[in-house]
Structure formats: structure tokens, C-alpha cells
Design goal:
The protein is of the alpha/beta class. The chain has nine helices and twelve strands. Helix content is 44%, strand content 21%. α4 crosses α9 and α5 packs across α7. The chain starts with a strand and ends with a helix.
């Protein structure tokens, strides 16, 4: 069966997603959507030109919502990163713009009776994921945000650099909002065969500093080039492949948690049916408190956006 993915929003992030998909040959059909038709047509032509030098081919379509009707996954990369310029590192500055655009896109997906899975990159991601689910009416487990899949990767990179090991050898999670209220749940982090909390003192690890580095990693990248794209695009494509291959992989993604009454990042098993199973971590009292603060913030912002 043909694998088909749609990317909505062909800015820096959407283009990085599409390029990764094209260069790796992950799909048979790719649908690209953007309000700037000249840009999306140019990207599509550029990708078609690239194919002569690739070991695989795919069909690429542009600005046709009907072509999304039978897609396995649609990735929302909508955004207006220029709004971040004087925002003081607050992802919520994009909310008035992205909430309006997400509602428009969700209505169009509903109009073509889209029944696949939605992956949301668009910031503020937890709130926008809620909007996509609410407007499309798709099951909550079929609409997923990249959430702290990226922040957890930043934490793993920061820890690995301190210890001189591969970041894939660090296990653990950042939880909550993909934003300023997120935190590293150190009780979940294991490295070199033991909990990092036991290892930290002997190895001279400053966990507060590492938590801060994971949290501000995106801001550091943004200040250097005025956008972030490769890290989050890779996270989104990994999530799409996890769904398309029914990989049943444990990932910290933004998923709807009934006990918090909102979308937030918490590890879940992801497969062909989206979020297949939700994990229950044994968090410390302090971590639970931080997670509640994050949840309350997301809920407040979601209510504001839908008012």
C-alpha cells in the first residue's frame, strides 16, 4: 500500500520535514500545502529535480487538500517565526496567528473527511494540538504533538556531552509543556546503567544547569539563525515513521491526558493507531507538582485561544 504524507506550512520547518522525507524516500506520495503558492511550487520542483540523484522516487502534489483525504499522516508546520523576534523567548507569542490558521486548516481537513493521523509541530504545540483535535473531531489518540520529543533530545544531548557518550545512550524525559514550564524529570533519566541522580555527584553533573540547557536549547538556536528547524523536523518525521510502520515505540509526545484534562508531553506507546497506550511514570512529588503547573498553564492558554 502506498505510503502518503502531507506537510502543511512550507516555511523553514516544513521544508526541512519535506526534505528529510524526500531524501530518505520514506513515502510514495507527498502533498505540500502553503498559502504562498510560488514558494510551495518552487519547493516541489526543487524536490523533483533532486530525484534524478536519489535511489527512489515519489509523486509530489501541491496545494490540493483533496489529495490529503487518504494520507496516512498530515504534519502541521504552520507558523510565523518572525513573531518570535521580540518575544522574550515565549512560544505563546505565535498563538493569535497559529490558532486562527490551525482552525482554518482543521476545517479544510474535515471538509475532505480526513481520517488519518495528525502530527502537530506548530507552536504553542500543546494548545494547537488541542485545536486540531477539537475542530477535526478526530479521536484524541490520532492527533499528536511533537511536544518534548525534541526537548528530551536536547536534554539527552546535554547530558551526553558532559559524559562523553552518544546521546542515544541516555534514557529519560522532559515532560509537560513544550515551552517555558517544561522540566527534565530526572527520576526517569538513566545513563551508564544507573539512575542519573545516583551518578550525578560522583561525575560532577549539575542537574539544574543541564535542565536549563535543555529548556533554552531552542532559544539558543533561534538567536543564532532566527528559526529552529532540523531538530524538530527530525522529531516529526520520526513520529510519522513510527505511525506508518506501526513501530509501537515509547516516545515523549504531546498526547491528551485525561487526569490533567489537556494535551501535554508524557511518554506513550505510538503505533499505527496513534497513541496506543499511555505510560504511568513513578514521578517524585516535586515532579508531579511541576507537571500540574504545566498542565494548568496549557489549559488556561487553550481556553483563551478558543474564547
Amino acid at each position: 500500500m502506498a505510503r502518503k504524507v502531507g506537510v502543511i506550512g512550507m516555511g523553514n520547518v516544513g521544508a526541512a520535514v519535506a526534505h528529510y522525507v524526500v531524501s530518505a524516500g520514506f513515502v510514495d506520495e507527498l502533498v505540500l500545502i502553503d498559502k504562498n503558492s510560488a514558494k510551495v511550487e518552487a519547493d516541489a520542483l526543487d524536490f523533483r529535480d533532486a530525484m534524478a540523484n536519489l535511489p527512489h522516487r515519489m509523486d509530489i502534489y501541491t496545494n490540493d487538500y483533496q489529495k490529503l483525504a487518504d494520507a496516512d499522516v498530515v504534519i502541521s508546520a504552520l507558523g510565523n517565526i518572525k513573531l518570535q523576534d521580540n518575544a522574550g523567548d515565549d512560544r505563546f507569542v505565535e498563538l493569535p496567528f497559529t490558532s486562527k490558521n490551525a482552525q482554518e486548516v482543521a476545517q479544510k481537513l474535515k471538509a475532505v473527511n480526513y481520517q488519518g493521523k495528525i502530527i502537530v509541530i506548530t507552536n504553542p504545540v500543546d494548545v494547537i494540538t488541542s485545536i486540531f483535535q477539537e475542530v477535526t473531531g478526530l479521536p484524541k489518540n490520532h492527533v499528536i504533538g511533537t511536544g518534548t520529543l525534541l526537548d528530551s533530545a536536547r536534554m539527552r544531548r546535554a547530558v551526553s556531552e558532559q559524559l562523553g557518550i552518544d546521546s542515544r545512550s541516555v534514557v529519560g524525559y522532559n515532560l509537560g509543556e513544550h515551552g517555558n514550564s517544561q522540566f527534565t524529570a530526572w527520576s526517569t533519566v538513566r545513563v551508564l546503567g544507573q539512575p542519573i541522580t545516583e551518578l550525578a555527584q560522583g561525575r560532577g553533573l549539575d542537574l539544574d544547569a543541564l535542565d536549563h540547557e535543555a529548556k533554552v536549547g531552542g532559544h539558543t538556536v533561534f538567536h543564532g539563525k532566527k528559526y529552529t528547524n532540523y531538530g524538530v523536523a527530525t522529531a516529526a518525521v520520526r513520529l510519522a515513521n513510527t505511525i506508518m510502520s506501526n513501530a509501537m515505540t515509547e516516545l515523549p509526545v504531546s498526547n491528551y491526558r485525561e487526569e490533567y484534562g489537556c494535551y501535554l508531553s508524557y511518554p506513550a506507546i505510538v503505533g499505527a493507531d496513534g497513541v496506543v497506550e499511555q505510560l504511568q511514570l513513578d514521578l517524585t512529588a516535586e515532579e508531579l507538582k511541576k507537571l500540574q503547573v504545566s498542565a494548568d498553564y496549557i489549559k488556561t492558554k487553550y481556553q483563551e485561544s478558543m474564547a
